[in-house]
Amino acid sequence: MAARILHRLRSALGGDGDRGPRAGHPEPEDCPESSELEDDTEGLSTRLSGTLSFTSQEEEDEEEEEEEEEGAAEELEQPPQPAGAEDAEWGAAAERPGSSLLTRQLQELWRKSRGSLAPQRLLFEVTSASVVSERSSKYVLYTIYLIRSGRFDKAPATITRRYSDFERLNRRLRCRFGCDMAGIAFPRKRLRRNFTAETIAKRSRAFEQFLSHLHSIAEIRRSPEFLEFFFLQDLQTAQRLTCTGMYREALATWANAYRLQDRLGVCGSGRFLLTLAGLAVCHQELDQLGEAHGCCEQALQLLEAQGSHPLLGPFLQAHVHLAWKVGKDKRRSEARLQDLREAGPPLQQQPTLKECLIKEPLD
To answer: Would you state the pLDDT for residue 247?
Structure first.
């Protein structure tokens, strides 16, 4: 991609810059992203056979070409190059007669752009869709992966939702964020042909765009309605499994809720602390004491700046006990426990982490 940009730069410096766009290479659009949902009708028969995949090689090539066209038009959005490679290329361009001023300007812009970190995008991809038939109903269950661009997740964060879940989210957000939601489209209900491959594929693509548009708006992205759509069901399921002693199943659900909150950037919330408590309890019940100790340490780091919190005492007590079990330093936690003992009620009256999980209302 960088080589193509450099070639175009050299052509422009050599006097070809006044030529119009070549045939087959239209100029990049001013607004490449639209608030409208786009139909994805190509290859529907091959996309759906129990599993949907929206990342074919042709689509990846088309996306690369679009990125290259945008990169040629906008100087500051060029991708980073290996150390030294870009300087050599810019130096070669600078040797051209009459190009020194333009080249110096581009070099300065390039150096500034290298020093800035572009924020990571969160991608939403429907990876599968299955038709579920129950006694009185029939619906499609969509599996969505939350993927951070530019990174490989060994254990991706996933959710499974049906159309009614998306519709409820859409309705709640439109009630609260009417102006922001005005430009965001939502797939309409159909009276028939709801379970055909074509309809499921179109809706899958629509849900991907719907979530991406919502996440691009800061106020919506931070709202309880949007966040709880992703991880509240997992928290409720994990709490129920923990209370019934199904710790291995609960551990997997707590872990997925942890990944979801991590991807969504809400690792300092009360829900996240409760998730760490669930992980610590399940790890301890499964005799995975090192992992349980690590969860308590992470929670205490988040609670470092808080003078009081309902989970602080239980986490400190669990950390002291686990640190003694695994041979780790527990003096700091003991000192904080002593401060709590002097400032408040006796610690014997405080619930354990497990009791906190059981009593915490999640609705």
So the answer is: 97
